[in-house]
Specification:
By secondary structure, the protein is of the alpha+beta class. The protein folds into two domains: 2-42 and 68-262, Penicillin binding protein transpeptidase fold; 390-557 and 574-698, Beta-lactamase. Helix content is 38%, strand content 14%. The strands form nine sheets. A six-stranded mixed sheet has the order 18-10-9-23-22-21, sandwiched between helices. Strand 22 (626-632) and strand 23 (637-644) form a beta hairpin. The model is unreliable at 1-10 and 13-37 (pLDDT under 50). In the C-terminal section; belongs to the transpeptidase family. Residues 688-707 are annotated as: Disordered.
Length: 707
C-alpha cells in the first residue's frame, strides 16, 4: 500500500512537471512547489562532446588521431534517414508526437513495474535518453560518482530527467535533439556517436548507412556488449531484425523492403576495431613525428586534455615522400630488428622565416614493446643519443673561430698529439699540474697521417682532434659553447650529461647542471669532440641555420591548428633570430663544403653518386658507441645519428651484414650515418635543380692567416 501511495505521488509530480515554465535566459526549469525535488534543474550544460583530434600531413592526409572518446560530430544532413528511422522505431516511436515525455508509456511502465515489484519496463523517450547520456558520457565522463547517480533508478532522478527533457524540447527542434542523441550515445567497440560507429562496424559514413546497417546500430544502443556482432552474431542478427520489423510496423519501411533487409548478412568488418588512438597507432613510420607534434603543441600551451577532446585538425609540415625516403635509407643501413643499434634521421627545411620539420624517422617503431624493437623514447627529436655526436661538434669550434677573425683558409696547427696548458681533463699520460686529482688535457689524433698544419676547411673535412682543441684555447671554450647554443643545440645544452633535465638533488654533481654549465664550469675541452648526449633534430636544425644565412628558427612541425568550428587556434609563433652574422654563416658553409669531396664522407658520397653543392661534417665518439653526420643543401638540411640504444654500453661494429654490438668497434660518421644521409637525400633531391651554396664573403676571403 505504501508503494502504491508513493507511485501516485510521483506520477502526480511528474505530470505537474509539464506545467513548470522555463526561464529563458537562465536556461533552467523552475518549479512552483517547495519540494526539494522540484527546485531548479539545469538543462544539459553547453559542454561540447569530446571528439577526435586529427593530425594531417602537408597534403592534408590524416596520419594519426588522438581522442578520449572515439566520436566524430556530424550534422543532421550527414545522417541517413534509415538511421534516424531505426533509432526512433526501436527507442521511441512516438518521438515526433510527444513534448519530451511519453506520458502513456510512462504510466504504463509505472503500473507494470508496480505490479511486478521491480523494474521490468522503462519509458524513457529519446529526449530523456539524450539528457542522461549527455550527463554520463560528456559532463561527468571523469566523475564516476556523478555517473553512478545518473544511472540510479529512483523517482527523484527520473523527475529531474523528465523535467529537463520537457525544457529541452521547448528549446530545440526534434531534429536537433535526434542529431545530438545520435552524436552522443555509445555504440560499443569503443565508439561514441553514429559516425564513429558507421566507420568501425561497416567502414562507411553515417550518410551511407543502409537499412540493415542502421538497424544493427540502433539495436546496439540498448546493449552494446551483449549484442556485439563480432562475439555474439546470432543475438545481434535477431535484434537487428526486430528493429527492422518495428520500422515496418511504424510504416517507415514497406514490408517487401523490410523482408529483403532481414535477409542481408550482418556485414560487419572483422575485426571490429575503433580508430587507432595516439602515436602508437599512427601510420607506419610516423609515430615519432606524431609524438614530436604533441610535445610541440603542449610546449606552445595547448591543454593536454583539450588536445584529446577538442576535435582539432592539426595541419603539420610532414612530407610523406621525404619521410618515406628517409625511412627506407635508415632501415637499409640498420634494419629495425638490429639488436642494440638505433639509426635516426631528421630533415628540416632551411629558411629565414621558418624551419619546417619534414621528417623524423628511426629504424625502431614507436611503441611500448621492446621485444618487437619498439620504443617510447623520442629517438629522432629527443636528446636520445647518450653517447654524443662526436666530431660534428667541431662545427661549433669552427664557427667561434670564424667569429674571432679566422677564415675558411686560415691555417691551423694539427700536431699528432697535444697537451693543453689551458684546459684540464685528467686524460691518461698527461703531465701532472701538481694539483690534487687534476691533470692537463692531452690528446692524440685518430692516426699519424695528418700534416702538422692545414687550413680550417681541410681540418673540418679531415677532422684532426688536436687542431680543434688548439682553436678552443684561442677563442675560448665559453665562446664555443655559446655559438653551439645560438646555432641550434638549445635543448641539448639544457639537458645534463645523461640527456635528462638537470637534477639538483642528484648525488652526482655532474647531473645537477646542464651540459653548458658542465663543460664551461669545468673548462672541459672535450666539448669540441662531442662526447655528451645530443638531439638528431637539433643537429639537423644547426645545418639549416648555417645555410639560412645564420638565421636560427625554432624547428616546427606545425602549419596551423583548426578547431572543430573551423577557427584557427592562436598559438605562439616559432621564433627566429640571427644566430651568427650572415658573413660568418656563409664562411662556415664554405668551410664545410669539402667533406663529401675529399673528406671523411667522400666514400659515401661517391657510392650514392652525389654531385650537388652541400655542407657536411662527420662525427665519431671515442669508443665507437655512436657516430653522426650533419649535412645540408640550400633545399634540405638533415642529420643522422647511429648509436647503441641497449642497456649494454658496448661499441658498434659495421661490415658484412647489419651493424652489431661488439668488443672493439669500427663505427664512423663516414659509414652508417653518412651512407644513410646520402641515400635519403639522393632520393629527396632527385627532381630538384642543384643550387649553389652562398659565395664566400670578401671579408672572409682576406682572412688567410692564423686569425
Amino acid at each position: 500500500m505504501t508503494r502504491l501511495v508513493g507511485l501516485c505521488l510521483v506520477a502526480g509530480v511528474l505530470l505537474a512537471g509539464v506545467l513548470f515554465p522555463v526561464v529563458g535566459g537562465a536556461g533552467v526549469l523552475l518549479a512552483r512547489t517547495g519540494d526539494h525535488i522540484t527546485g531548479p534543474v539545469a538543462l544539459p550544460a553547453d559542454v561540447e562532446p569530446p571528439t577526435v583530434t586529427t593530425l594531417v600531413d602537408a597534403d592534408g592526409e590524416p596520419f594519426a588521431h588522438l581522442y578520449d572518446q572515439y566520436r566524430v560530430l556530424v550534422a543532421s544532413d550527414e545522417i541517413s534517414p534509415a538511421m534516424k528511422d531505426a533509432v526512433v522505431a526501436v527507442e521511441d516511436h512516438r518521438f515526433y508526437e510527444h513534448h519530451g515525455v511519453d506520458w502513456v508509456a510512462t504510466v504504463r511502465a509505472a503500473l507494470r513495474n508496480y505490479a511486478s515489484g521491480g523494474v521490468v519496463q522503462g519509458a524513457s523517450t529519446l529526449t530523456q535518453q539524450y539528457v542522461k547520456n549527455h550527463l554520463i558520457h560528456v559532463e561527468a565522463r571523469h566523475d564516476p560518482l556523478r555517473q553512478a547517480r545518473a544511472r540510479m533508478r529512483t523517482p527523484e532522478r527520473k523527475l529531474r530527467e523528465i523535467r529537463t527533457a520537457v525544457a529541452l524540447e521547448r528549446r530545440l527542434s526534434k531534429d536537433e535533439i535526434l542529431t545530438r542523441y545520435l552524436n552522443t550515445v555509445p555504440f560499443g567497440a569503443g565508439t561514441y556517436g553514429v559516425a564513429a560507429a558507421a566507420r568501425t562496424y561497416f567502414g562507411t559514413t553515417p550518410d551511407r548507412l543502409t537499412v540493415p546497417q542502421a538497424a544493427l546500430l540502433a539495436a546496439l544502443v540498448n546493449s552494446p556488449a551483449a549484442l556485439n556482432p563480432e562475439h555474439h552474431p546470432e543475438a545481434a542478427l535477431q535484434r537487428r531484425n526486430v528493429v527492422i520489423d518495428l520500422m515496418a510496423r511504424y510504416r517507415m519501411l514497406v514490408p517487401e523492403v523490410a523482408e529483403q533487409a532481414k535477409r542481408e548478412p550482418l556485414g560487419v568488418r572483422t575485426p571490429v576495431r575503433p580508430l587507432p588512438n595516439g602515436c602508437v597507432g599512427a601510420d607506419p613510420g610516423l609515430g615519432f613525428f606524431c609524438s614530436y607534434v604533441i610535445d610541440h603543441l603542449l610546449a606552445k600551451g595547448l591543454d593536454p586534455e583539450r588536445l584529446k577532446t577538442g576535435g582539432y585538425t592539426v595541419r603539420t609540415t610532414l612530407d610523406r615522400e621525404v619521410s618515406a625516403a628517409v625511412e627506407r635509407a635508415v632501415r637499409v643501413q640498420v634494419p629495425r630488428d638490429t639488436s642494440g643499434v638505433a639509426n635516426t634521421m631528421a630533415v628540416v627545411e632551411p629558411g629565414r622565416e621558418r624551419h619546417e620539420v619534414t621528417a623524423l624517422v628511426a629504424n625502431r617503431d614507436h611503441g611500448p614493446d621492446a621485444a618487437q624493437f619498439q620504443t617510447m623514447l623520442d629517438l629522432p627529436s629527443g636528446v636520445s643519443n647518450t653517447f654524443g655526436a662526436g666530431s660534428v661538434f667541431k662545427v661549433f669550434t669552427a664557427a667561434a673561430a670564424l667569429e674571432h677573425g679566422y677564415g675558411p683558409d686560415s691555417v691551423v696547427d694539427s700536431p699528432t698529439s697535444y697537451t693543453s696548458r689551458v684546459f684540464k681533463g685528467g686524460a691518461q699520460g698527461c703531465p701532472s699540474t701538481g694539483e690534487p686529482d687534476t691533470r692537463w688535457y692531452c690528446l692524440r689524433n685518430h692516426n699519424d697521417d695528418y700534416p702538422p698544419r692545414m687550413t680550417l676547411r681541410q681540418a673540418l673535412a679531415t677532422s684532426p682532434n688536436t687542431a680543434f682543441v688548439i682553436l678552443e684555447e684561442r677563442v675560448g671554450l665559453d665562446a664555443v659553447v655559446d655559438v653551439a647554443r645560438r646555432l641550434g643545440m638549445r635543448r641539448t645544452l639544457a639537458s645534463n650529461i645523461a640527456g635528462d633535465a638537470p637534477d639538483p638533488n642528484s648525488p652526482r654533481p655532474e647531473l645537477r647542471v646542464d651540459q653548458a654549465e658542465f663543460f664551461t664550469g669545468r673548462q672541459n675541452a672535450s666539448f669540441t669532440l662531442g662526447p655528451a648526449p645530443s638531439s638528431t633534430l637539433e643537429l639537423a636544425n644547426v645545418a639549416a641555420t648555417i645555410v639560412s644565412g645564420g638565421t636560427w628558427c625554432e624547428p616546427t612541425p606545425l602549419v596551423e591548428v583548426v578547431d572543430r568550428h573551423g577557427q584557427v587556434v592562436d598559438l605562439p609563433a616559432s621564433p627566429c633570430e640571427q644566430a651568427v652574422p650572415e658573413a660568418v654563416a656563409d664562411a662556415l658553409a664554405t668551410a664545410l663544403s669539402d667533406d663529401e669531396d675529399r673528406g671523411t664522407a667522400a666514400q659515401a658520397a661517391r657510392r650514392h653518386g652525389w654531385s650537388r653543392p652541400m655542407i657536411g661534417k662527420t662525427g665519431t665518439t671515442e669508443e665507437y658507441k655512436s657516430a653522426a653526420f650533419l649535412g645540408a643543401t640550400m633545399d634540405h638540411a638533415g642529420a643522422v645519428q647511429t648509436f647503441n640504444d641497449s642497456p649494454d654500453p658496448r661499441p658498434v661494429c659495421v661490415g658484412t651484414g647489419a651493424p652489431r654490438l661488439c668488443a672493439s668497434g669500427n663505427l664512423y660518421g663516414g659509414t652508417v650515418p653518412a651512407h644513410t644521409w646520402f641515400d635519403a637525400m639522393t632520393q629527396i633531391h632527385a627532381n630538384l635543380p642543384a643550387t649553389p651554396l652562398p659565395p664566400l664573403p670578401r671579408t672572409q676571403q682576406a682572412s688567410t692567416g692564423d686569425g
